[in-house]
Amino acid sequence: MTKSTTNIEHAVTVRNVHKNYGDVQALENMSLDFPRGQLTSLLGPSGCGKTTLLKIIAGLLPATSGEIIVNGTPVTGPGPDRAFVFQDFALLPWASVLRNVAFGLELRGVAKSEREAIAEKYIANVGLAGFENSFPHELSGGMRQRVGLARALSVDAQVLLMDEPFSAVDEQTRRKFQEDLLGLVKNENKTFIFVTHSIEEAVYVSDQIAILLPRPSRVSEIIKPSGFRHKSADHIRRDPEYLDIVDNIWASLRSYVE
Amino acid sequence: MRHRSLFLTLLSATIVFGAWEIAGRVPVSFAFPTFLESMAAFWVLIVEGTLFTAYAETLKPLVVGVTISAFLGIGLGLWIGLSEKIDWLISPIFVVMQTAPLAALIPLLVMAYGIGLTSKVFVVCIMAMPVIVLNTSGAVRNTPASLKEMGHAFLGSRSDIILKIILPAASPVIFAGLRLGISAGFIGAILSELKITPTGVGDIITFSRSIADYPTMYAAIMSIILLAVLFLNVLERIEIFLFGGNNKGYVSE
Amino acid sequence: MNLFGYRLPGMSSLLLWGALWELVGHLEVTFFLPPLSAIFATLLEIASTKVFIKALADTGYAFFVGTFSAIVIGIPVGILMGKNRLIDEMLLPWVNMFLSAPLTALVPVLMVLFGFGLQAIIITTALFAIWIIVLNARAGVLQINRSLVEMAHSFGASPTDAFFKIYFWAALPEILGGVRIGFIRAVKGVIIGQLLISIVGFGALFELYSANFLMKHFWAVLLVLFSLAFLIAEFLAYLERRVAYYAARRAS
Fold first, then answer.
1. Does the distance separating the beta carbons of B168 and A84 come in below 8 Å?
2. Contact criterion met (CB < 8 Å) for A84 and B154
3. Which of C59, C65, C152, C210 could form a disulfide with B107 if both were Cys (CB 3.0 to 4.6 A apart)?
4. How many structural domains is chain C composed of?
5. How far does B148 lie from chain A, in Å, by closest CA?
6. Which residues 91-110 in chain B show a CB within 8 A of chain C?
7. Closest by Cα among C122, C114, C110 to C61
8. CB contact, 8 Å: B145 with chain A?
9. What is the tens place of the pLDDT at every residue in A148-161?
10. Residues of B in contact with A115 (CB under 8 A)
């Protein structure tokens, strides 16, 4: 494990964020930087507030205090610079794949022909060409999440927020997704913030892993795997550094699992 | 398999109508005509056209009342579903209306609005509205949170989220509410005929009863039950066609 | 809804509406809406009169006999339909038809067949309640966990044992749901019956009050009926929640 020395500009900065629900403290004094063009995972046991933090960054939840800065401007609500991928896909069951993927652009008032052309491109990108006119209930779980991913990509936001995107998908599909995600990070030049509860998944896909611990919710550690990032997808899982990091994270998390 | 179910339906119809015929021939009561007599009377009502002019009258308050209830009920339901304050303020009224025997209001409505069309429309409205309002508000409230969040995250305006996410998501339950509203509206229309003034089918029923023409009376009553059942069945088919058959376990109402 | 940090109870807005009613009543906007307080005063006055008690007793009698017969006939028929495919296919079209049919139209027939009295009202009440009870009992039996039935078989339960120890209890939450809706429908049925037959019970009172424009009396009776209907529905919903919980715990 080597500490990354490159101090490039941060796409997203979380500064002293608190979040309370009534008397319950969900996040306490959370500060975190998200390097541009990289994938950062928020990893932790359930109840550590990782999804809450993601939704605060998305502007879906207001922080009780503290601030979120995206590309130099503070967040006050959802914005065109961020796109969200939902755990349960959040697809419109009454709309075709094409309309679902184009829906983000539709809400932004992009003309029909233009948004459908963009949507078709991203449908092909995520490997769903030919399914444009299918409906969500005709697709498998994995294909549904590809639709959710295409929707997030088609609005061309610099920051992609992914809330446990693969947790409702079967194991084999998930592996394929993880490999595809690595390609996406390499080619799309976007900043990814990725919430997961799977240690292997976090280590496999991340440039930076923020370990969150509950009660009170805080960032306990930041890990930057770098030794195996340049390796091809099939070699990562056999890399000694990969295995060490997975073991270390498990060692620090195991006492928090009921 | 289809043949079996059709055969059994026909068989059970034959048994029921046969039993009716026999009971009428015994006769179990002077006021119990046979099935065939009632059918003959039904045929006469159709051929003479009496039935059609009668239904034109009977269905008028139903159509007007259901139309008003649909617009007002869906609008109110939407408002209740979207605002917690309005929910607190208005829902209890409709919850009470849903369980209350609203038919008891009819004498009051007659005192206030006379025996004309207004009263009848009112009766249909108070019967049909509660279920439409409660179904709409419940469906709006139960829109999956992640869909609303998605609309918000992708920068949808409030009206976008209502029109493009909440309303389509709620429409199957709203449609079911309309169907139940129409079903209750039928009861309202019949009550208006029987309790306020007999102008249409109610007139046939009342008149034939007064001259002891029981076959005609039975035929008129059968026709209205048949009409309601057929119409509601068609609506249910449309519902299944539009929204897919959401299997009902029959616990809800 | 929250007000100044307090959570307002669910039906509390009815108090606000009651106050508004009182106000409108005092302003004498319309003859048809006397102040709520005056209605309550009238209610206390008539509550002890013979006519009112007789009407309440008649209505209660018709209601309970009607629903009791609907339950006693409806549940076994529903269970039978759920268990036996032939019976199910023969009866289901009729049950479905009567469930959605406007049964109000049958009241004139019941009047000529059974006379202008309590008997016709009891039958109306039972007819309103029975179909949903049948359908729910049927749905309850149809959803019984197969492994529960197989368990009974593997332990050598006799058919009667299986029926009373498995089917009835496993279907109980649905059956009670049907009974609750049946009661609500029966309340409507007993009132519609009296309204159309109108020489017994509250039907007669309504005629009397509306013919003499006794608004306060009329509203007093309405309030009693509406609150009784609401209380019955709420009580049954409460019972159903308890049993559903009990059933869920037993199943696990």
1. no
2. yes
3. C210
4. 1
5. 9
6. 92-93, 95-96, 99-108, 110
7. C122
8. no
9. 999 999 998 999 99
10. none
Q: Are B155 and A103 in contact (CB < 8 Å)? A: no
Does residue B160 belong to the interface with chain A, where contact is any CB pair within 8 Å? yes
In terms of residue numbers, what domain contains C133? 35-251
pLDDT in tens, A13-49: 999 998 888 777 888 888 899 999 899 999 988 778 8
CA pair distance B205, B201, nearest whole angstrom: 6
Q: Quick check: A155 and B156 CB within 8 A?
A: no
Structure tokens given for A30: 């959370």
CB contact under 8 A, B96 and C226: yes
Q: Is residue C188 part of a domain?
A: yes
pLDDT of residue C7: 74
Q: Is there a contact between A12 and A70 (Cβ–Cβ < 8 Å)?
A: yes
The per-residue pLDDT for A221 is 85
C-beta atoms of C213 and B111 within 8 A: yes
Q: Residue B152: list chain A partners with CB under 8 A.
A: 60, 78
Question: Under 8 Å CB-to-CB from C216, ≥6 apart: which residues?
Answer: C34, C38, C39, C41, C42
Superfamily of domain B34-242: MetI-like (1.10.3720.10)
Let me know if residue C24 belongs to a domain. no
**C67-91 mean pLDDT:** 91
Domain of C219, CATH number, reads 1.10.3720.10
Task: For residue B66, count other CB atoms closer than 10 A to its CB.
Answer: 27
The residue of chain A with its CA nearest to that of B170 is A94
B150 CB within 8 Å of a chain A CB = yes
Q: Is A60 in Cβ contact with B154 (below 8 Å)? A: no
pLDDT digits (tens, 9 = 90+) for C2-57: 666 677 787 888 999 999 999 998 888 888 888 999 999 999 998 888 888 999 99
Subunit contact C195:B187, Cβ cutoff 8 A: no
pTM of structure: 0.85
Q: Is the pLDDT of residue B250 over 80?
A: no
Position A101 scores a pLDDT of: 95
Count contacts between A and B (CB, < 8 Å): 53
Cα B46 from Cα B69, distance rounded (Å): 31
pLDDT digits (tens, 9 = 90+) for A214-226: 877 778 888 888 7
Per the listing, tokens 């303020």 go with B89
Strand blocks (E) in A55-96: 65-70, 73-74, 82-85
Prediction ipTM score: 0.85
Indicate whether C183 belongs to any domain: yes
Mutation site, B146, B148, B155, interface A, largest A CB count within 10 A: B155
Alpha helices in B26-116 (DSSP H): 35-48, 50-82, 84-99, 106-113
Looking at residue C176, what is its pLDDT? 87
Interface of A with B in 153-172 (CB under 8 A): 155
- Taking the C-alpha atoms of residue A83 and residue A190, their distance in angstroms, rounded to an integer, is 11
The more confident residue out of B1 and B103 is B103
What's the confidence (pLDDT) of residue A244?
Answer: 87
Structural domain includes residue C17: no
3-state secondary structure B152-218: HHCCCCHHHHHHHHHHHHHHHHHHHHHHHHHHHHHHHHHHHHHHHCCCCHHHHHHHHHHCCCHHHHH
Nearest CA in chain A to B145: A90
Segments making up each domain of chain B, as ranges: 34-242
